[in-house]
C-alpha cells in the first residue's frame, strides 16, 4: 500500500476523534474569543455612542486616557486589594474551619450544613442582606446588637458606627469573605479527608507532635488544594460585580475594574474608552492570576522546606 | 459511646463558628417573617409577631407587580443553559479523555483560560451584537451567554469524571464487539452519571446567581430574578421585610439544591479535583 492510501483513512479517523469536540470548541471561540477581539479593535477607535458622527481611528488615545485616568488607576488598586484580601482571609478561615470539621464531634454534619449556607445565598441577595439588614446604621443587626449589649451593662450611649461610610472596603470584603470562606472550607476539607492516614499514624507513633504532623505532612498534602481554592477564588472575585454594585455602587473608593467599566459603558457611553479599559482588565487579571499563584505556592514551598 | 458524646473543645468551637456563619441567613429568614416596623427596630425585636406580610408584598400585594415572570426567566435561563452545556460538554469531554485527540491537554487549558478572561472585557461587543440583531431583552441570548460562561467548567468537570472510566473495560467491550451505543450505555454512563449530576448542579447555581449579563442585556421582558431583586430597594419607606422575603425566595432553589447534594457541590466547585 502506498503512504497516500494509508493517510486518507488515518485522517478520517483523526477527524472522527475530533468531531465530538468541535461543537464545544467552536461555540467557545465564537462566544468568548471573538468579542474579545472586537473589544481589542474598538479600543483603538474613537467611538462615543452619544456622538456617532465623530467615529474614527484613535490609535493609542484611549489607552493614554485610561492609563492617566485616576479613577481607573484607583480601581486597579481596589481590584487587587479586594481580590487578594478576600482570597487570603477566606483561605485562612476556611483552613481553620476545615481542620475543625475534620475532627469528630457531635453534630458535625449539622455544623457543616450551617457553614455551607452563606455560599448558597444568591450573591445579590447576600449583598443586599449585608447592606440593609446588617450594616444599616439605624436599624441594622450589628448596631442593634451593640445597643443590646450596651443595654445589658447599663451603657447609655452605645456606639452606632456607620459601617459602610466609615469602612467601605472592609464592609464589602466582609460580605465576600462570609460567602467565600465556606467554598474554601469545602475544598480544603475534601483535601484533609484524602490524606494518607497511615503516614500520619506512623509519624504519631514515632512521637511527632500535632504541629509537626500539620506542618510536615498535612500542609504539603493540602498545598494543591490551597492553590486550587486560591485560583478559583481569584478568578471569581477579580470579576466581582454584585457586591460592589450593591453595597456601595462603586462609591467611597471601592469601584473595582468590572464596576468602573460597567459605569464607563453605561453612563459615559464611551465605547472606545470602555474597551481600552476592558483590555487593561484582561492584562491585569492575567498578571494577578499568574503572580498570585506563584506567590502562594512559593510561600508554601519555603514554609515546607525551612 | 461515652467518648463519642464527651465534651470536646473543638466541637464547641466548631458549633460557635457554624452558628456565626449561618446567623445572617437565619436573620434574613426571621426578618422576612416580621412586619416592616418590627424589622426596623434598634435593638432588634427577635420575638416580634410573625407575619407573611413581607412575602405578600414580594408577590405583589400592593404594587401588583408579579415576581413570576422574572422567576420563570431565571428558571428558563438556568435550565436551558444547563441542558445546552451538557449537550456540548459531554461529547467534548469524551474526545478529551476516552478517545483523546492529539494535544488534548492544550485544548483543556484553552477551555480553562477562557474562564480567566473577565466578562466585562467582552460585554460591549456582546451588547452591540445583541442590539444589532434585536436580541436585547431576549432570554435566548442570555441562555447562550450562560452556556459560554459554564461550558469551560463543565468540560473540565466531565473530563475528570470520564478519565475514571477503566481502560480495561473499554478494551474488553471492544474485543467483545460491543457497539458504540452499548459501550456508552454499559461502560461509560455509570461513571459519567455522577459527573453529569455535579455539572448540572454547578451550572444551574452559577446561571441562577448571575447579575451582570442579566442587568446589561435584559429589561422588562427577559429580566431575571437577581435583577428583579435589586428593584426592591426603595429610597423611601421601610423595605427590610420585603427585601428579606424576596432574597429568601430567590435563594431557595440554590439552598435546597446545594444542601441536598453537598458532595456533588464539592465535586463541581473543585472542577472534579475532589471526588
Task: Provide structural commentary.
Chain A: Residues 76-292 form the ABC transmembrane type-1 domain. Chain A: Belongs to the binding-protein-dependent transport system permease family. Chain A: Keywords: Cell membrane, Membrane, Transmembrane, Transmembrane helix, Transport. The complex is a heterodimer of chains A (306) and B (275). Chain A is an all-alpha fold. Chain A has one domain (43-305): MetI-like fold. Chain A has 14 helices and two strands, in the order ααββαααααααααααα. Chain A has helices at 3-18, 22-42, 61-68, 70-101, 108-116, 123-134, 141-152, 163-166, 168-193, 197-205, 210-237, 242-247, 257-268, 271-305, and strands at 45-46, 56-57. In chain A, strands 1-2 form a two-stranded antiparallel sheet. In chain A, helix 9 (168-193) packs across helix 11 (210-237) and helix 13 packs antiparallel against helix 14 (271-305). The N and C termini of chain A lie far apart (63 Å). Chain B is an all-alpha fold. Helix content of chain B is 71%, strand content 0%. Chain B has helices at 9-32, 36-39, 53-58, 68-97, 104-116, 119-132, 139-162, 167-175, 180-209, 212-217, 225-230, 240-260, 262-269. In chain B, helix 1 packs across helix 12, helix 7 (139-162) crosses helix 9 and helix 9 (180-209) packs across helix 13 (262-269). The two termini of chain B are 31 Å apart. The mean pLDDT of chain B is 86. At the A-B interface, helix 1, helix 2, helix 4, helix 5 and helix 6 of A face helix 1, helix 4, helix 5, helix 6 and helix 7 of B.
Amino acid at each position: 500500500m502506498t503512504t497516500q492510501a494509508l493517510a486518507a483513512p488515518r485522517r478520517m479517523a483523526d477527524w472522527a476523534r475530533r468531531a465530538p469536540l468541535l461543537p464545544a470548541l467552536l461555540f467557545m471561540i465564537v462566544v468568548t474569543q471573538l468579542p474579545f477581539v472586537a473589544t481589542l479593535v474598538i479600543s483603538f477607535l474613537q467611538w462615543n455612542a452619544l456622538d456617532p458622527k465623530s467615529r474614527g481611528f484613535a490609535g493609542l488615545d484611549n489607552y493614554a486616557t485610561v492609563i492617566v485616568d485616576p479613577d481607573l488607576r484607583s480601581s486597579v488598586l481596589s481590584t487587587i486589594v479586594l481580590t487578594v484580601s478576600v482570597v487570603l482571609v477566606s483561605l485562612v478561615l476556611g483552613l481553620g474551619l476545615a481542620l475543625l470539621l475534620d475532627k469528630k464531634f457531635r453534630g458535625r454534619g449539622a455544623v457543616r450544613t450551617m457553614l455551607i449556607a452563606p455560599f448558597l445565598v444568591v450573591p445579590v441577595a447576600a449583598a443586599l442582606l449585608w447592606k440593609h439588614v446588617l450594616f444599616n446604621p439605624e436599624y441594622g443587626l450589628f448596631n442593634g446588637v451593640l445597643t443590646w449589649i450596651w443595654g445589658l451593662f447599663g451603657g447609655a450611649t452605645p456606639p452606632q458606627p456607620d459601617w459602610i461610610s466609615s469602612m467601605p472596603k472592609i464592609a464589602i470584603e466582609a460580605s465576600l469573605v462570609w460567602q467565600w470562606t465556606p467554598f474554601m472550607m469545602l475544598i480544603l476539607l475534601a483535601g484533609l479527608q484524602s490524606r494518607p492516614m497511615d503516614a500520619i499514624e506512623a509519624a504519631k507513633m514515632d512521637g511527632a507532635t500535632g504541629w509537626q504532623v500539620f506542618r510536615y505532612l498535612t500542609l504539603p498534602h493540602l498545598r494543591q488544594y490551597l492553590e486550587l481554592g486560591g485560583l478559583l477564588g481569584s478568578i471569581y472575585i477579580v470579576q466581582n460585580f454584585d457586591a460592589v454594585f450593591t453595597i456601595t455602587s462603586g462609591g467611597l473608593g471601592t469601584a473595582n475594574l468590572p464596576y468602573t467599566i460597567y459605569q464607563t459603558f453605561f453612563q459615559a457611553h464611551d465605547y472606545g474608552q470602555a474597551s481600552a479599559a476592558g483590555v487593561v482588565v484582561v492584562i491585569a487579571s492575567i498578571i494577578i492570576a499568574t503572580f498570585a499563584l506563584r506567590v502562594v505556592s512559593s510561600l508554601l514551598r519555603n514554609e515546607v522546606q525551612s | 459511646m461515652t467518648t463519642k458524646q464527651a465534651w470536646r473543645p473543638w466541637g464547641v468551637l466548631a458549633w460557635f463558628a457554624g452558628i456565626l456563619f449561618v446567623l445572617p441567613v437565619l436573620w434574613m429568614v426571621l426578618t422576612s417573617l416580621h412586619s416592616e416596623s418590627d424589622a426596623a427596630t434598634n435593638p432588634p425585636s427577635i420575638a416580634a409577631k410573625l407575619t407573611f406580610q413581607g412575602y405578600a408584598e414580594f408577590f405583589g400585594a400592593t404594587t401588583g407587580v408579579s415576581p413570576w415572570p422574572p422567576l420563570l426567566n431565571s428558571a428558563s435561563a438556568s435550565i436551558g443553559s444547563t441542558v445546552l452545556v451538557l449537550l456540548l460538554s459531554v461529547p467534548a469531554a469524551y474526545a478529551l479523555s476516552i478517545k483523546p485527540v492529539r494535544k488534548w491537554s492544550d485544548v483543556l487549558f484553552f477551555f480553562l483560560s477562557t474562564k480567566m478572561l473577565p466578562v466585562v472585557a467582552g460585554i460591549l461587543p456582546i451588547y452591540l451584537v445583541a442590539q444589532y440583531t434585536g436580541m436585547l431583552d431576549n432570554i435566548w441570548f442570555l441562555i447562550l451567554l450562560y452556556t459560554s460562561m459554564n461550558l469551560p467548567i463543565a468540560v473540565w468537570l466531565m473530563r475528570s469524571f470520564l478519565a475514571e472510566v477503566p481502560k480495561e473495560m473499554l478494551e474488553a467491550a471492544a474485543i467483545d464487539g460491543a457497539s458504540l451505543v452499548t459501550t456508552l450505555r454499559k461502560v461509560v454512563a455509570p461513571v459519567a452519571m455522577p459527573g453529569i449530576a455535579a455539572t448540572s448542579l454547578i451550572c444551574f447555581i452559577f446561571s441562577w446567581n448571575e447579575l451582570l449579563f442579566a442587568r446589561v442585556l435584559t429589561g422588562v421582558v427577559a429580566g431575571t430574578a437577581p435583577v428583579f431583586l435589586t428593584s426592591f430597594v426603595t429610597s423611601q419607606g421601610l423595605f427590610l421585610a420585603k427585601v428579606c422575603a424576596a432574597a429568601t425566595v430567590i435563594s431557595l432553589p440554590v439552598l435546597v439544591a446545594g444542601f441536598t447534594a453537598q458532595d456533588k457541590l464539592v465535586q463541581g466547585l473543585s472542577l472534579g479535583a475532589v471526588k
